[in-house]
Amino acid sequence: MLETIMENWNDYCKVENFVGIGSTRKVYRVGDYVVKVYLHPLGYLQSKNELDIYEAMVEKGLQGLFAQTYYVDEYISIQKYYEPLEMRNNQSFEIDMKKDEDLIPEMYEEVLLQLDKEYDCFDLKDSSNYGLNNSRKLVFIDYGMSKKLYEQQWVPLAEAGILPQIDFDYCTSCRFKKELRMYGDHDKDKRCFSCGKE
């Protein structure tokens, strides 16, 4: 199945398989896998980092805390699928060690520290970066953004309106308060993703 997805990924990345979207990648579910399609070359760099980190965590025996990255090329990456965390009040949230203790797996704090110190990872506590395993514990599914990538490439592109920043405001179409994808200070289109704004 994996080889079929690798060779024919475009056939699987349809609206009905859509899972989520970030600033640099759009995600589709194909059975037990997700296909991350790059919206910007930064998405490829993130996916390469995820593959490198996953392989390093296998060597340390910590792979159970990470979505396995099976494949990366210049267009897509393929990972194991995990159920995403639900949003709270239509937005992602920061994982809180006390408030979310039922979700915290063993070795979580040690792994967070390693990702920070050894791999320069950024934005590790945002709930949108996690899925849930069969034991209803957190698994890293989006762990490839480094502080260096963020500061040197993502921020300038976001400030220029090329990559979206997330704003929490009312959608002008559905009127619900949601996360909105905003492209620079002059973007006046305040529709949410569900109402058609990518």
Q: In words, what does this structure look like?
A:
The structure is a single chain. With 198 residues, this protein is α+β, with helices and mostly antiparallel strands. It is built from four helices and ten strands; from the N terminus they run H-E-E-E-H-E-E-E-H-E-E-H-E-E. It has helices at residues 2-12, 41-59, 108-119, 147-159, and strands at residues 18-21, 25-30, 33-38, 69-72, 76-80, 83-84, 130-132, 138-140, 165-170, 177-182. The protein has a five-stranded antiparallel beta sheet, sandwiched between helices. The longest helix has 19 residues, at 41-59.
Topology overview:
Blueprint: H1 2-12, E1 18-21, E2 25-30, E3 33-38, H2 41-59, E4 69-72, E5 76-80, E6 83-84, H3 108-119, E7 130-132, E8 138-140, H4 147-159, E9 165-170, E10 177-182
Antiparallel strand pairs: 1-2, 2-3, 3-5, 4-5, 6-7, 7-8, 9-10
Protein name: Protein kinase
